[in-house]
Design brief:
By secondary structure, the protein is of the alpha+beta class. Strands 4-5-3-6-7-8 form a six-stranded mixed sheet, with helices on both faces. It has a two-stranded antiparallel sheet with strand order 1-2. Helix 1 runs antiparallel to helix 8 and helix 2 packs antiparallel against helix 3. The relative contact order is 0.09.
Length: 470
């Protein structure tokens, strides 16, 4: 199977609210970095536990981000999602040896590794992230415009992830076995010229190129690129603070840089969780809409038989709680078969729609339910309604149908379409089921038919209706 990939939630066009949130986050990050710049040498509280705690949280966040992206890829088969998943997966895994190589985190001597192992490991996982992010940007450009077989795409994703894992493992192995031969990156006064003139510049340049490419390609219209650009901005600010501002650990600027680093490592997870929550809310709303649609009659938009039964139970519960009565009105259009046979089914459907609208307009309370329970049969459920109230509503409905002035079939003596109404009212506590009240209302409707139609009859006594058009 070939063709363009399915859309996924992070490839949707960013809303104005999302753009504002991303801009506010970016401005906030820059403000924090600028505010922390003068405090590169000012010591802050010495919190040894903060590095393993936040570092462990970052590892979990990046791996969970990778898993969520991978799940999205498996659903949509959009290969760039797998590529971005690999970026977070590899970076999260490389954070583990980075913590292990840092003295005082899990070992006072960093398991016998030299002083340069930790800074070089820091460089390795930062370099891995920005290079793999660049791979995502390339893959998004390529796979968005190229029709790729899903099996070929899956093979590419597997090979890409395997290759990145092998290279990352090889880099860690080289660093462990050859750390004593690596150039010195950090000295008592901070980072050396090797870092400032080469390593740090390469990292910042790479991040800048990736950001510029995303901006040039689609002006950050997509949610994924918008927030990935904010992530890379935080990434760059962390590098600037660590390389050019921070003189030693546990200074105020060090805490700011450490916090910015932790933020970009966890930010994309928050974005994904927010999107997942929005999708869940949208799914729940769609489900409620679909369930509601199954309870509605397609022709008249009144409740159907299923909706009738559900709304009756709701009205019965409400009436019982209020210790009141519940009323049920059954309605039948007089001689509707003759109208249908003479004017045709399309005219019959149009008449049903008009009459349904008149019924809904005549029933005022939001809690009341108007239903179509058969071809030309209707029912109205009135919670907390006594006999007098039910009579009032029934007469209002009868007159509303008359006022439509729907011309009847010539062979029918009635000059216009009319409706007969049966009423049944009972204390809610005395009603055991909808069938009990419905049978009483139906019997009253049958008596209304025998009395000449176009009238309202209660189960407790008939009352003849007017036979003229109002």
């Amino acid at each position: 199977m070939t063709g363009r990939p399915l859309a996924h939630n992070l490839s949707t066009v960013a809303t104005i609210a999302q753009r504002r949130a991303a801009l506010a986050t970016a401005i906030g990050l820059v403000c924090v970095a600028v505010a922390a710049a003068p405090f590169g040498s000012r010591p802050g509280p010495h919190l040894d536990a903060i590095v393993p705690a936040i570092g462990s949280a970052a590892i979990v966040a990046m791996i969970v981000s990778a898993m969520m992206l991978r799940n999205q890829y498996q659903t949509t088969r959009f290969v760039p999602l797998a590529v971005l998943s690999t970026a977070y997966w590899i970076t999260g895994l490389l954070l583990v040896p980075s913590l292990l190589f840092t003295k005082g985190v899990f070992s006072p001597t960093a398991f016998g590794l030299g002083a340069q192992a930790a800074p070089w490991m820091w460089i390795v996982w930062h370099a891995a992230f920005v290079m793999l992010a660049a791979g995502y940007v390339w893959s998004e450009s390529y796979f968005s415009r190229s029709a790729v077989d899903s099996e070929d795409g899956a093979a590419f994703a597997r090979c890409y992830a395997l290759g990145a894992t092998v290279i990352a493992a090889a880099a860690v192995a080289v660093l462990v076995t050859s750390h004593q031969y690596l150039p010195i990156l950090i000295a008592p006064g901070g980072y050396t010229l090797t870092y400032h003139l080469l390593v740090g510049q390469l990292l910042l340049t790479s991040a800048s190129i990736v950001m510029a490419t995303m901006i040039a390609r689609n002006a950050l219209r997509q949610t994924s690129n918008l927030w990935l650009c904010v992530v890379l901005l935080a990434y760059a600010l962390e590098i600037v603070l660590h390389g050019d501002v921070i003189a030693e650990p546990f200074t105020i600027a060090w805490y700011a840089g450490f916090g910015i680093g932790a933020l970009w490592q966890t930010m994309f997870l928050f974005v994904q969780l927010r999107h997942a929550n929005e999708q869940l809310a949208a799914y729940a709303a769609d489900t409620r809409t679909l369930v509601e649609e199954t309870k509605r009659d397609a022709l008249t938009n009144l409740f159907n038989r299923r909706g009738f039964e559900d709304r009756f139970e709701l009205a019965l519960t409400t009436s019982r709680a209020a210790r009141g009565s519940i009323a049920l009105l059954t309605l039948d259009l007089d001689h509707f078969k003759a109208y249908n046979d003479h004017f045709g089914h399309l005219a019959g459907d149009d008449a049903l729609r008009q009459i349904a609208g008149a019924i809904m307009a005549a029933v005022n309370r939001p809690a009341d339910a108007c239903c179509r329970v058969g071809g030309e049969e209707f029912a109205i459920i009135l919670a907390e309604t006594d006999e007098a109230g039910a009579q009032t509503v029934a007469e209002r409905v009868r007159i509303a149908v008359l006022r439509l002035r729907i011309r009847h079939a010539p062979e029918i003596a009635l000059p216009a379409m009319t409706v007969s109404v049966g009423i049944a009212v009972a204390p809610a506590d005395a009603v055991s089921s909808v069938q009990t009240l419905y049978e009483r209302a139906d019997q009253a409707l049958y008596r209304a038919k025998r009395l000449g139609r176009n009238c309202v009859v209660s189960a407790d006594g008939p009352r003849e209706g007017a036979l003229r058009i109002v």
